[in-house]
Amino acid sequence: MNVNDLHKVWEIRTLKRKVGGDEARRFLEKIAKQVQPIMHKHKWRVKVLSEMCTFRKALPSLSDCRPIPTSIKMGELTGYQLGVIGALFLSVASSVSIVIVNKALMSNLGFPFATTLTSWHLMVTYCTLHVAHRLNFFENKNIDMKTVILFGILNGVSIGFLNLSLGFNSIGFYQMTKLAIIPFTVLLETLFLKKQFSQKIKLSLFLLLVGVGIASVTDLQLNFVGTVLSLLAIMTTCVGQILTNTIQKRLNVTSTQLLYQSAPFQAAILFVTGPMVDQYLTKQYVFAFKYSPLVLGFIILSCVIAVSVNFSTFLVIGKTSPVTYQVLGHLKTCLVLGFGYTLLHDPFTQRNIIGILVAILGMGLYSYFCTHENKKKQMLDLSPASQIKDKDSNTPLLGHQDKENHFEVKKATKDSLV
């Protein structure tokens, strides 16, 4: 077993006896190694795998005392589910908070430089993770530099395209751009990753998109440049989020490790291009802006919250999927509309209320159908035939030929998806 893999059997206990103890331990270690691929796939952990004995009147040999593995349901699945819920909650709470702070910063305090602000967010995120790494809060893992650079640049470019799309389009068309990310992600995962989405999942996503559209889309003013920028924003965002999920699972890296290595490249591309993009959109230069203590305070607060936003984004996509992350994003949209009405006294109409209710219905159905289908899939994955099929069909996204064992990574070479 890979000692560095957290998703494994942590401890093996055998019965105390003079004869057969080593044989029982070897048998349990063999079982632990056989089930590790399943545990790694579902991110399960088992604290103790114990030997149980069937008592008889006499125990003349080891054959009368057989090691029986504990059930793999183990309360570790519950721990994994709590981890997913925690990641989702952290993502929603931090994202809604940063939207409210940024709205106050840009609307009330007149600081319009969104792209440059995002580069500062990523710089602070990297510095925070670097300090955490130096304090041994997490272990860094080497990833092929080409993969990290291309991934970081892609994510930075996608942020720039989204901001340009907002600048060249009406608010309504920009909201439609964000709504289009889900169906485009479904299309890409179906075509390139051979992922199947049931009709029930598609129906729930359709309801969600209709609801958010009713609540947030108002005017639709089209222009050629804005449409091209929106298409580029959709494509880069979808590919970036799919790669966020794929890199973590295929290269066996955590969300923290991936964010730590890619954040400098995302920050660099935005730090270079951000002032130019913002100057083109706002006709103002970010470094000529008069920074009052109040503006600086809100910028610092925004950067601090952004650490949690960036971390939770990678965490949620890694633990769930890009589509689930987008669904969560639309939940944030509904919450922001609600908080905007409650805290900032934004206008709120009957149309907003109907749209939010329809969107919540779609989210609820999506969550229910996903949970139901995942349970069925887990039952199938526990069968030996399913493990063999999965081993044969699991191929990397960017054509990387894996010559190693499918569930272990050689320490002598760096991992790469490119």
TrEMBL record:
> Per the UniProt record, which residue ranges are transmembrane?
82-101, 113-135, 147-166, 205-222, 228-246, 258-274, 294-316, 323-344, 350-369
Which ranges carry the WLM domain?
Answer: 8-54
Where does the protein end up? Membrane
What's a single GO CC term here?
Answer: membrane
Keywords linked to the UniProt accession: Membrane, Transmembrane, Transmembrane helix
Residue stretches making up the Sugar phosphate transporter domain: 94-367
Q: Which InterPro entries match?
A: Sugar_P_trans_dom, TPT_transporter, WLM_dom
Identify its membrane topology class. Multi-pass membrane protein
Q: What Pfam families does its record include?
A: TPT (PF03151), WLM (PF08325)
Name recorded for this polypeptide: Sugar phosphate transporter domain-containing protein
